[in-house]
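Exam revision sheet. Question 4 asks you to relate a sequence to its structure. Input first:
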Amino acid sequence: MLRELQTCFMKGIYNKHDTDNACGFINDTNSQTAEQILSIYRGSVYGGLKKALAETYPTTKNLVGDDFFNAMLGQYITRYPCQVQDLNDYGEELADFIADLKQARSVPYLADIARLEWFYNITLNSAVQENNLANLNRLSTEQQVQINFQLSNGAALISSVYPIDAIWNMQQDNDDINSELETNESNVFLIIWKNNSDVEINRLTEEQFYFLELINNELSFSDVCNALSECYPNMDINILLGDSINNGWVRSYLL
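Answer key, structure tokens:
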């Protein structure tokens, strides 16, 4: 009975056109009908979710303004009802939702900014990873080529045809995005990672990005070397690995 009540109630919350069952569990009052009471609940739920999403996507909100952002979130919440208990975990699909939203096309980099902010949120809430790379010298040569290097815990890789890191930084400094911002440069490759308690966004070369993607795909170091040599035969993998370790992007390995 309780599960049925919860299912019907939440269906009525997220679907304005399917409220009969939900209203069947609500008693009219002298001043309000069951439908009106359900509408109040709906406003409270949507309001709480919009507030949580605004905290996860502050730059996305600033780029389009409060009215557009709230209207967009109303559509998003209806399509993607919250299924998680921790609201930090809600909103993963927003970037893809924006990419398909015709009304958002006037800000062509908006979806990529939202994707960056989601990864930033994931990284921010991840635990700091211990570094076990000092143990590498204990491994045999045969073991070393079979290990799986690991990106820093919570790290994410993202590429865009727009300078989304520059746009994001300008918003943090409360600067206006002016017409002089170069938005037609070649692809931007980024890693978002946690440096102690701080989240950093670093630009990568195309080769660094590909190398870290291979690592993120949990390939053995031998397979990483083979794949890299096929795409970038002149690239020294020892330099890529050394830079990745020194910068803190790679902090551990599995055998």
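Marking note for examiners. The chain is about 50% helix and 10% strand.
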